[in-house]
């Protein structure tokens, strides 16, 4: 019940991207190092080769310039690693080969530079604030950087690998930096709080509203952290590839993370609100940067081309009746129940009556809240769904109960599934792993009623519908199958005794099993005329049977009738006292005991001759 309430809250927050994204091909091919916005919503991007572009919010180029075009021909070309905006001074700060260059933002002309750095600046950030001098914290004013011939840098080493990102957050009064090195993946400088993350941190941001640091990296997880506590307060799973970039909208309590897909997360509920895969968004290639404009509700993405994803609420015009509060991914018709079943991206399944169009029931896959991508029905009318997590699930859609989860290999999205009947029932799934996965419904279709172990590596089971299955315990594969009601096994060998509904007893030698044979049957006989049970008495090498035909009988291990309960004296150890070679009278006269012979089946040459004489 709590999960259902939580899901209701999550669905009320649902947002989507307007797909596909708006793409601009201008300047494509060279990675963009970062994206920033000015106070008038002008977008600023710089490529690694120094090509700068100022964009309108609609992603139309406003002004462009190549910053390094005037370099001498014999000089090695420079590479931009990062840049920052000094909006208060209308300046642009660029990090390049052991230099920090400052340009006029709108004239795009050089203003000054700081050169002779000991190392290549990988990431830059700028703070406009009257800060007190802090120990071990850089505190260099813009005036000092411009006017002084000697600029002093204060450095402190907190990472053992390259720094992937560094930012100053005014609300924390601290510089936060990240690295791909696990032991010091994220460091908050004010109190030297160190966060350890598997495979390091590639990107991070701060939600000022909830005072949470949000990180992403090579392990495909989005983590939420209290800046003063080194354990994550939340972990968001859903990406199938490393997270290259992320940003936070504190106003909306949302996280935007970029992997091969673009995903929106809700911070308060800590769940996925929407995911756009590259085929839907048309954003391809390595994502080098992203930036969110909360006023325009736009996410700007730099990949192989510049793109903008606009947020939209899924709520339509009040005069338009909608079936879901989120996109509907698939629907199908159940002939068995004469109902329509539809599934949404939020894992909501709704069942509708085909004749009236009224909703019959609704349930939510609350286990992992993974988006349902496809569906099918099996011959019994059960619902089969595929999801973005690579799993197939079989449902009783009238009760909302998940009957079985099918999963193979890596968790790649299932794009479609269907149900086939070739010898045995099976579900076929296809998806982003570029493989055709066949899930055979091998095994019992009804309740399993009995089981016996056949050493060393065989297990035999019998089900309510009279089927026996012998399993290989090592591989899990089925050795053979047959309709059966009772099983028993000898202690000293691998003989398996089985009984069916019409009174037959079968002996199987599991050591002589041949894959080319349908089953390894050694011998069989009819012991009763109705459903029987059996027990093996190993000490005397006899088989005890009983039946719903009101009889109990004793047999030799090879099916010779000893009988049981007759008034004449007999001994299990004296074969001459047995009924054999006679058989019980009820078995003898029963029509189902007749042998399978071509003469009795009307297929002999004699019958053909009689028919020809009669025709003449």
From TrEMBL:
<keyword id="KW-0677">Repeat</keyword>
<dbReference type="InterPro" id="IPR015943">
    <property type="entry name" value="WD40/YVTN_repeat-like_dom_sf"/>
</dbReference>
<dbReference type="InterPro" id="IPR036322">
    <property type="entry name" value="WD40_repeat_dom_sf"/>
</dbReference>
<dbReference type="InterPro" id="IPR019775">
    <property type="entry name" value="WD40_repeat_CS"/>
</dbReference>
<dbReference type="InterPro" id="IPR011047">
    <property type="entry name" value="Quinoprotein_ADH-like_sf"/>
</dbReference>
<protein>
    <submittedName>
        <fullName>WD40 repeat domain 95</fullName>
    </submittedName>
</protein>
<dbReference type="Pfam" id="PF00400">
    <property type="entry name" value="WD40"/>
</dbReference>
<keyword id="KW-0853">WD repeat</keyword>
<dbReference type="InterPro" id="IPR051242">
    <property type="entry name" value="WD-EF-hand_domain"/>
</dbReference>
<feature type="repeat" description="WD">
    <location>
        <begin position="372"/>
        <end position="405"/>
    </location>
</feature>
<dbReference type="InterPro" id="IPR001680">
    <property type="entry name" value="WD40_rpt"/>
</dbReference>
<feature type="repeat" description="WD">
    <location>
        <begin position="441"/>
        <end position="481"/>
    </location>
</feature>
């Amino acid at each position: 019940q709590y999960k259902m309430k939580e899901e209701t809250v999550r669905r009320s927050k649902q947002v989507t991207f307007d797909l596909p994204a708006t793409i601009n091909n201008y300047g494509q091919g060279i990675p963009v190092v970062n994206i920033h916005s000015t106070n008038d919503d002008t977008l600023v991007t710089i490529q690694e080769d120094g090509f700068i572009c100022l964009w309108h919010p609609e992603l139309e180029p406003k002004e462009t310039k190549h910053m390094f075009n005037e370099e001498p021909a014999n000089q090695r070309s420079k590479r931009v690693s990062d840049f920052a905006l000094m909006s208060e001074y209308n300046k642009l700060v660029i990090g390049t080969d052991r230099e920090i260059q400052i340009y006029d933002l709108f004239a795009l002309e050089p203003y000054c530079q700081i050169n002779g750095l000991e190392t290549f600046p990988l990431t830059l950030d700028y703070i406009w604030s009257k800060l007190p001098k802090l120990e071990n914290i850089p505190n260099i004013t813009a005036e000092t950087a411009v006017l002084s011939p000697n600029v002093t840098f204060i450095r402190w080493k907190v990472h053992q690998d390259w720094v992937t990102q560094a930012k100053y957050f005014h609300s924390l009064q601290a510089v936060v930096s990240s690295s791909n090195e696990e032991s010091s993946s994220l460091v908050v400088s004010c109190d030297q709080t160190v966060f350890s993350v598997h495979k390091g941190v590639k990107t991070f941001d701060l939600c000022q509203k909830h005072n949470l640091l949000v990180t992403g990296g090579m392990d495909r997880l989005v983590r939420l952290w209290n800046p003063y506590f080194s354990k994550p307060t939340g972990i968001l799973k859903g990406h199938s590839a490393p997270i290259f970039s992320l940003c936070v909208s504190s106003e909306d309590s949302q996280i935007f993370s970029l992997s091969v897909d673009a995903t929106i997360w809700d911070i308060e509920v800590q769940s996925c609100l929407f995911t756009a895969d590259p085929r839907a968004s048309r954003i391809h290639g390595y994502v080098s940067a992203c930036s969110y404009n909360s006023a325009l509700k736009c996410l700007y993405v730099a990949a192989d081309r510049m793109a903008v994803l606009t947020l939209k609420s899924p709520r339509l015009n009040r005069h338009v009746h909608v079936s879901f509060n989120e996109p509907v991914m698939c629907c199908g018709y159940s002939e068995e129940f004469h109902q329509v079943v539809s599934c949404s991206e939020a894992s909501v399944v709704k069942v509708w009556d085909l004749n009236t169009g009224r909703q019959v029931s609704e349930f939510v896959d609350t286990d992992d809240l993974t988006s349902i991508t496809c569906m099918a029905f099996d011959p019994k009318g059960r619902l089969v769904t595929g999801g973005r997590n690579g799993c197939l699930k079989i449902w009783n859609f009238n009760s909302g109960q998940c009957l079985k989860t099918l999963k193979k290999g890596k968790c790649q999205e299932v794009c479609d599934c269907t149900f086939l009947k070739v010898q045995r029932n099976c579900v076929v799934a296809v998806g982003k792993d570029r493989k055709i996965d066949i899930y055979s419904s091998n095994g019992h279709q009804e309740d399993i009623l009995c089981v016996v172990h056949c050493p060393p590596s065989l297990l035999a089971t019998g089900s309510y519908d009279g089927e026996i299955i012998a399993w290989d315990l090592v591989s899990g594969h089925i050795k053979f199958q047959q309709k059966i009601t009772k099983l028993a096994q000898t202690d000293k060998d691998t003989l398996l005794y089985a009984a069916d509904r019409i009174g037959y007893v079968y002996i199987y030698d599991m050591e002589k099993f041949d894959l080319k044979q349908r089953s390894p049957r050694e011998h069989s006989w009819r012991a009763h005329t109705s459903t029987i049970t059996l027990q093996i008495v190993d000490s005397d090498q006899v088989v005890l049977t009983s039946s719903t035909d009101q009889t109990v009988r004793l047999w030799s291990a090879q099916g010779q009738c000893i009988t049981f309960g007759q008034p004449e004296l007999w001994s299990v150890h004296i074969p001459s006292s047995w009924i054999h070679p006679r058989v019980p009278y009820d078995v003898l006269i029963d029509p189902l005991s007749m042998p399978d012979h071509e003469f009795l089946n009307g297929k002999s040459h004699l019958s053909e001759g009689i028919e020809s004489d009669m025709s003449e």
